[in-house]
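Dear colleagues,

As part of the handover before I leave the project, I'm documenting each prediction I ran so the next person doesn't have to rerun anything. This entry is a single chain, and its sequence is reproduced below.
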Amino acid sequence: MESVSLNEIANGLNVLSWDVLEYLNNHPSQSYSAIRVKFGFSQEKISKEMARLEGAVLVKVERDPNDNRSMVYNITRYGRSILKMK
């Protein structure tokens, strides 16, 4: 498996990526709907962005502890490390 540095990941992030990471860092445990409303993009664009961030292990999806039927997004320690590089 090839290793990718945090610098390489940071260089590949777009403006929306940085904005979502900052938002989740300041507002943990956000639903997909809340993120979509916050940024005002289409469902397709936010869905792709969240999948990209999750694939890069910068965010994680977890069951909402208050509603086991729902999922929430949280920033990971790698996501926080990337934010420090901005």
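The chain has a mean pLDDT of 94. Helices lie at 6-11, 15-26, 32-39, 43-55, 77-85.

All the best with the project,
I.
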